[in-house]
Design goal:
Blueprint: E1 35-39, H1 44-55, E2 59-63, H2 65-68, H3 75-83, E3 91-94, H4 115-136, E4 146-151, H5 167-190, E5 194-200, H6 221-233, E6 243-245
Parallel strand pairs: 1-2, 1-3, 3-4, 4-5, 5-6
Helix pairs in contact: 1-6, 3-4, 4-5
Amino acid sequence: MWQISVHVRELSHATHWPSAIDGMDHRHTSARMERALIIGASGGIGSALAEHLKSDGVTVDGLSRSVDGLDVTDEASVQSSLGALDGPYDLVVVATGALVVDGHHPEKSVRHVTAQGLADQFAVNAMGPMMLLKHGMRLLPKDRPAVFAVLSARVGSIGDNQLGGWHSYRAAKAALNQLMHGAAIELGRTHKHATLVCLHPGTVATDFTARYAAHHKTVPATEAADNLLRVIGGLTPDKSGGFFDYAGQEIPW
């Protein structure tokens, strides 16, 4: 879709990944991305995405809780923050989310699940992005390609769940995937050139994952940003509603 440079010097693996986006129609790759909006711009992945895009000459606007007071669990806050922006944006990335909310950590067992912890996870990781999409769709152009990408997680895949645990976080991410999949159908009726996807960035070395990364290979936020932008650059509207990882591989629901 767009020509996005990849900072190979930061990659630990510069080889080509065969993926679900290979072989698609790349007639739009010569197009130039001009404007992007990163929601969650103060976080590890969000800030890395913003810096990468800026280095490519893209005009980047950012929103975050720490800088702008955006509260994704409050629809009035979402409406106010996004309502102050003027589109269109070629790319909108929702890089918000939380693994631990108000002291509720990922559960190792069903007996550790609480109603409040479950509700908090849904508020931040499912309802929040949905409200951002609801009030952000108007910022996408209708006459040319655009991407609305929401960061999800592989643990939200029901088909890929072989370990159990992390019940509230998994369920919230699964709900997020369903919400975006359904919304992509509606978006396609009004924005025929737009692509709405969920993306799994991998386990990224940020404050978000620090406590739980001991048993998982992590990548720097800069590398994660490169990977995500590579996938985004190859998306076309026929992939709208999909769930892809950082290598462009489709993840089962």
